[in-house]
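ASSEMBLY PREDICTION REQUEST
Request ID: AP-0331
Submitted by: J.K., bench scientist
Number of chains: two
Total residues: 578
Priority: normal
Notes: Please return the full assembly, not individual chains.
Input sequences:
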Amino acid sequence: MKTIYFDHIAGNPLDPRVKEAMLPYLTDIFGNPQSMHSFGEQTREAIDEARAQVAQLINASSEELFFTASGTESNNFALKGLALANQSKGKHIVVSAIEHQSILHSAKFLEKLGFKISHVGVDKYGIVSRDELARQLTDETTLVSIMLANSEVGTIEPIAGLTGLVKEKGILFHCDAVAAVGNIPVDVNELRIDALSMAANQFYGPSGAAALYVRKGVRILPLLDGGIQEEGRRAGTENVPVIVGMGKAARLAWEEMPKRSEYLRSLRDSLIKELTNKIDYLYFTGHPENRLPHHASFCVEFIEGEAMLLSLSMEGMAVSSGSACTSRALKASHVLKAIGVGDALAQGSIVFSLGMSNAKKDIEYLTGAFPAIIDRLRKMSPLYTKHIQKKGDK
Amino acid sequence: MQYSETVMDHFRSPRNVGVIEDADGVGEEGNPVCGDMMTFYIKVKDNRLEDVKFQTFGCGAAIAVSSMVSEMAKGKTLDEALKITNKSVAEHLGGLPKNKMHCSNLGADALHKAIEDYRNKQKSKEEKPPARLDKEGGQCKCPYCGEAMDCQLGSQHSCKVVLKECPACKKPMRSDAEKCPNCG
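STATUS: Completed
Returned structure:
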């Protein structure tokens, strides 16, 4: 059976060129970068090059980048490391209501240590409220963490419009840009960000490679103590192959971004148009324009996301959903709740995230098959039957 | 795949999906807010489940559970059907993922509610035996206009006459009439 992958937000396939760049470091080149001999020198140089490549992608300098093992680690590092390093100045942190769990749960951890956490709300598109953020900042606030792009609804936050407000009060700004970096242009100086999280598997690099940017002069405590790797900010022997892969993937993303985003945007727009035309009671989620170029998200009324996901999977298509049943925790997406989607409608969440391996015919295959799947599930649904009866009664 | 082959089979081709328009009992369990909701419809004849149909809003497990329940219940006596448990349904499906055992495994509960609904209806029928209208050819007819009508009294029908039971002869009469046309 033909299989089509529409879940790039969960993880990208490895670009073959990235794989080629990594291979020598999985086989012949193995020295510990901290070793003083020639074997160590080889891998040390490889890491330096990768660091420069990743820095270029976000217009940072090499010494401001620290490699980690996942976007989640970068977010933990940023939130806990910045909060703890600056706790003498205050113990109040503001995060948005639609942050990734790695931010929200890190914030909860800090709460247990005596920090006060505020959550700033969003509008129906998922855009953070600037006024509410302004109201929440106090003399005790040391850190604000707001994401650049949301993986569930695709919305891109107007970060540049928020950082000024935060910076003028001397508060640090961390941005979880895991879903954004490599997909849209990101410039840490233009955005005036103090710290930023990113991960390689969002731009065709390997899983297990990620980074945290920390602006020069900003104090942060490490999560992992040990040796002097990553300038003592992240101890532990470097994972050289994936770091090399992240560097190569960053380089390719930097070179090819305009071409990629134009291609993905056109596929994405035809997907949205076709599905909107063909399916009733389909609600688009997230911002219609300010969104990731490869991202389309909806809520389908009267049916449940996991049933859609399974049905699509039986026809070879891989997608994701924010429904309660799809999550292992069995809770509907906090993001959909924050943007005001009702509890029942949120169960019909479905997210398509496209990638460079997708072709026009894949979108046609999807938009051909999906309406029939929805139809089948709706015929089974007591909610749909009730709705039709109600409509008939009027 | 986290689901057993049996679950996937019932999800792919669920048995007995649908609505029974003149169901003898209807049972609903779950809540769309939690992600799963099931409605069971039953037809009862001689104390047996002659027909069982369901509709389900929910995940793959919820759909497979409903389908399995309908299959297990069909043809059983009401008491036998009441012995079907959520646990035995999961066993028949070759197991369910641990986190689905609670929320999606509501099929037996919904079926039991349908049976309860049927029994309650039976009970209320027994408690208030309705005044019968004269049946002609198996069909009740209005004594005023001759039109076919529901055998139940008290409801208005097409000729706008509401019938009641005559306190003397127990035969149906106009609710607004002063004299019973049968006994006077």
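REVIEWER COMMENTS: Chain A has a mean pLDDT of 96.
SIGN-OFF: pending second reviewer
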